[in-house]
Amino acid sequence: MFRLILLLLNFGLAASQLAQAQEYHQFTSKDGRQISAELLGISPDNRKATIRREDNGEEFQYEIVGLSLDDQQYIKNWLKTRVIEVKTDYRLEIDLEDTLDLRRHRRDSYYTFEQRFISYKIAARNLSRETLPAANVEYIIVWREHVRVYEDAEKGWACWHTGHPTNDTRVKLTGSEALGELVFNRDVNVVASAVEINRALYDGKTHLEDDLVGIKIRIKDSLGNVLLEQDSAGSEIEQISWEDAMALRDAVKDT
Fold first, then answer.
1. Residue whose C-alpha is closest to residue 90's, from 235, 255, 226, 248
2. What's the pLDDT at 154?
3. Of 141, 145, 189, which is closest to residue 163 (Cα–Cα)?
4. CA-to-CA distance for 199 and 207, rounded, in angstroms?
5. pTM of the entire predicted model
6. Strand 156-161 vs strand 147-152: parallel, antiparallel, or unpaired?
7. DSSP string, 20-58
8. Domains of the chain and CATH, by start
9. Whose CA is closest to 134, among 201, 91, 86, 199?
10. How far apart are CA 80 and CA 180, in angstroms?
11. Tell me, what's the pLDDT at 26?
12. DSSP code of 66?
């Protein structure tokens, strides 16, 4: 008898937990029709909601934009509180193209200063047949800063040391850009912020010079899952982890 009571109690507890797991919501369409149903999931393109009716258990999909604004907010809140299984085996690739804007300034017959503005064009491509919705690209550009070129109102063009070469003079610039939808085999292009790589020459010979290390790139889905990580060419940038690159000091922006 005791075992029977224990089994009934366990069955009752399981049924209670199942009932708590089912959360029914009164959905209202924009034309006023109402239905009590449980939200089961969202389509990969975030356009349709899969729901199960409370009265007969029928499951079907419904266009989210066809629901009331309160229901659309309910769905957004539901997404934030649940771990959703996301496809992470997309086949992605990145092409990089760097551009250089060189500005040369001469102070006198001895000193020449160069400001080299380098930027990266990032081309993201989805090689899988399934569309990747709402992707983002993040990047970290790393370089060694040894000199800063500037224009002084009285002295004209000049420079100063920013760190001794024996010290770790590496700095970083971070950024992110929205890629939107990545459909099959169609490039989406974004341009990373430009970094200033300077050089000071004395009597035609390099006196001080910054050293570009490279760029690290990540593509993430809308939930923050890293789908691809890639570096520009060069062993040094490849040997720096994403976390170590983020720990470098930020480059000082010229004012």
1. 226
2. 81
3. 145
4. 8
5. 0.65
6. antiparallel
7. HH--EEEEEBTTS-EEEEEEEEE-TTS-EEEEEETTT--
8. 21-80 (2.30.30.700), 92-250 (no CATH)
9. 86
10. 20
11. 93
12. G
